[in-house]
Amino acid sequence: MKQFALFILSVLLGGCAAVSPPRVRQVEFGRSIWAEGQRRAGVLFQDGAQSIPVDRGTLWTFGDTFIGKPQPGQLPQNPQITGSHWATVALLPAGSTNLPPALEYFTDTNGVAACPLELFPEEDPKHLRLWPAGGISVGSRIYLYYSMIETSDAPGPWNFHGIGAGLAVTDQPLQRFTRLRPGGQWRFPVEPIQVVRENNTLYLFELCSNPKGLILARVGVGQIENPSAYEFFTGGNWSKNRAEAKVILREAYGQVSVAWAFPARQYVMATSSDFFHPHELQLRQSRRLAGPWSAPVRIAVPETPGKKTTLVYGVFLHPELTDGNSSRLVATFCRMLAGNWELCNPEWVTITLEPDSTPAR
């Protein structure tokens, strides 16, 4: 009787029975995604690599990007750097599933990768930058959330902090985004790293510092430009009061990527490393976006020859690189390397899952 009572208590506290983690059959690490598309656009090094489905394919977004002229037949090198952008974007045409991905960049009139986000005239270009976050296409419009980052004059790499999130929009994937200012203010109430659409509702995942962990927000598709329309998951209900948001996953760090996985018949979540497990990426699964999410499957990332990785970050799933019915996932990830100005590019990994024996949702 006591055991049965404990079981009932655990169900009430957890919301439902425990979720089993994904079953991984095989993992194959590839190499850097740097290829001819980057060479043509003058891209040497960059991080990020999240993708947003758009009308003609997927729009890949990158953070800090270093620009220069790599020599023919050579990999990029630091002495070739002539400039940098805080963000770049590139289009992967629909149906293009080869690795490395054949990316076409948003460029300036000289054919060099350009930044799709601009500061307003009154904003300080010395200490402010805009990093791309999650995004979604709605009809003919492409929305991109961004983080406003403030840097200090102290030496890097941790000389920055976030001061808010905004939303930008464009009608074509390879053109500049317009930052929205509803009511004269650029700030939006949520800073999502991932946006998932279910029917006419958008669900937004944010890694939050208070409360600490992953929180979930939602907004109607037609209300995405209205900051007052966003609601936050409170554990059982939804509230427009952000202070009532409850963490849906405590052990989430860096970045979070969520996609529907056919063989598992569940949502799969990829998360970055933390400082306690700095050399791995993690996979979880759930039938519901709000969770509960399973315990992680930890996938160790091998070291790069001749380098020392201090942190694996920026793990993003790419459903566009596989057949929709495939048991194979493709993800990209980034490395922070030890040493001064040790720069690199995102790398890919393929993960094959075991099929689930339970009925589809």
Please bin the fraction of helical residues: under 10%
Quick check: average pLDDT?
A: 90
Please name the CATH topology: Neuraminidase
By secondary-structure content and strand pairing, the structural class works out as mainly beta
Count of extended strands:
22
Report the sheet with the most strands, covering strand number, pairing sense and barrel closure.
Answer: 5 strands, antiparallel
Q: What share of residues are in beta strands?
A: 35-45%
Number of domains: 1
Written as H for each helix and E for each strand, in order along the chain, the element string is: HEHEEEEEEEEEEEEEEEEEEEEE
Shape: globular
CATH architecture: 6 Propeller
Low-confidence stretches: 1-17, 357-361
Instruction: Tell me the Rg in angstroms.
Output: 20 Å
CATH class division = Mainly Beta
Number of alpha- plus pi-helical segments: 2
Distance between termini? 33 Å
